[in-house]
Amino acid sequence: MKALTACTKAELAACKQEYEAEYQDFKAQNLKLDMSRGKPAPEQLDLSMPMMDVLTSKDLLQTENGFDCRNYGLIDGIPEAKRMFADILGVSDKEIIICGNSSLNVMFDTVAAAYTHGILGNTPWCQQKDVKFLCPVPGYDRHFSICEWFGIEMINVPLKEDGPDMDLVEKLVSADSSIKGIWCVPQYANPTGCCYSDQVVRRFANLKPKAPDFRIFWDNAYCIHHLVENPPQVLNLMDACKEAGNPNLPYIFASTSKVSFPGSGISMIAGSEENMSDLKKTMSIRTIGYDKINQLRHVRFFHDAAGLRAHMEKHRLIIRPKFEAVINKLNADIRPLGIADWTEPKGGYFISFNSMPGCAKRIVQLCKEAGVTLTGAGATYPYGKDPEDRNIRIAPTYPSVAELTKAMELFCICVKLASVEKLLAE
Ligand code: PMP
């Protein structure tokens, strides 16, 4: 196979005809597949079904210290759940609050609290002139939606293989007091799958923000979601921040959405004791307490951090072949043509695909018209605007390997067709 970029116009025109015919064949197959979000497959959800049987009407729904989970109370979570996730996140029991069914909800509430009431006695963001967030790109669309909702201006920061461009992050946060936060997915970033290096974590911990109410929004959504047997370790930000004398810098988030049941799991926030007690003020207005019975169910099912990790190994065995199917197809069909690149993550839920500039929207549209819905092009950038129109997030977990193989055949044809159209138009 010859690189498309090295073809003459006549060769490109011939390729276009060939790809168009292949595309029409696919259209005729009436595929219907939704790959727009990173959802666990039904077999993954089945792994947690025994959790439905761990609590019965015959059980005492009590915590280890005898607290009745059926009643109000314990706003920061039951002790055994706090311990299990403190262990996972590398913080102390006092530095974590176990919340409700969604970490996104906790992130939203945390921004909302800063917006209406301010962080640790600082002026509420709504009373400050400008409020800005740094957004490593490509990134997670729902982080960006929270900023957009509150009218927080988003500034793109390139996400490199070892984390955000820290030269730029340091320069911006130390110069501008209106920069109040940065969204980070340090382990297996959504969508690139990259992991932050030790050096990047240390540089985060040593930031000297001009704004006293600047926080690192450290969304550790995929901290135990490995695809490889010897996963990379991301340095503990909380420890690094304490070492640097900046214990209040991070807000750390996680959940069991892709461990147990998305939407019916438990979520958590971690950070310094000072930050946690500050946040509890808002939390205690908002709720009398979260779902402790679900927390108990999770602890009785997983037991401890080791139990959680063992469960994640079962997920790994289900989803790893799906990631391989995607990567193998891209390597076979697209690599030789020199028209795109993509990531090969060691964990998480996504593969980030970069087409030739100006082709992503067209590829997603072509796929959709032939029955495969992908995450909208542009979604991985603030305001839905990918400046180069290149990035597409591939979410391989939900479809079966057979469906995925079919979808990837179509995807590759659409990539080839869109690229050839672009090259012919140049
Ligand atoms: N953070 C990231 C980086 C995610 O990818 C997702 C799910 N796609 C979430 C948070 C959502 O988590 P939750 O279900 O706990 O709200």
The ordered string of helix (H) and strand (E) elements is HEHHEHEHEEHEHEHEEHHHEEHEEH
Name the CATH superfamily classification of the largest domain: Type I PLP-dependent aspartate aminotransferase-like (Major domain)
The CATH level-2 architecture of the largest domain is identified as 3-Layer(aba) Sandwich
CATH class division of the largest domain: Alpha Beta
- Helix segment count? 13
Beginning-to-end CA distance, first to last residue: 22 Å
The coarse overall form would be globular
Number of strands: 13
Rg, rounded, reads: 23 Å
What is the share of helical residues? 40-55%
Q: Classify the secondary structure makeup into a structural class.
A: alpha/beta
Q: In the residues, how many domains can be counted?
A: 2
CATH fold label of the largest domain = Aspartate Aminotransferase, domain 2
**Order of strands across the main sheet:** 2-9-8-7-6-3-4-5
Unreliable residue runs = none
| Mean residue pLDDT | 97
Question: How many strands, which pairing sense, and closed or not: the largest β-sheet?
Answer: 8 strands, mixed
In terms of DSSP E residues, the strand content is 5-15%
Q: Which ligands does the model contain, each kind named once?
A: 4'-deoxy-4'-aminopyridoxal-5'-phosphate
GO molecular function: L-aspartate:2-oxoglutarate aminotransferase activity
Protein name: Transcriptional regulator
Pfam families: Asp_aminotransf (PF12897)
InterPro entries: AspAT_Ic (IPR024551), PyrdxlP-dep_Trfase (IPR015424), PyrdxlP-dep_Trfase_major (IPR015421), PyrdxlP-dep_Trfase_small (IPR015422)
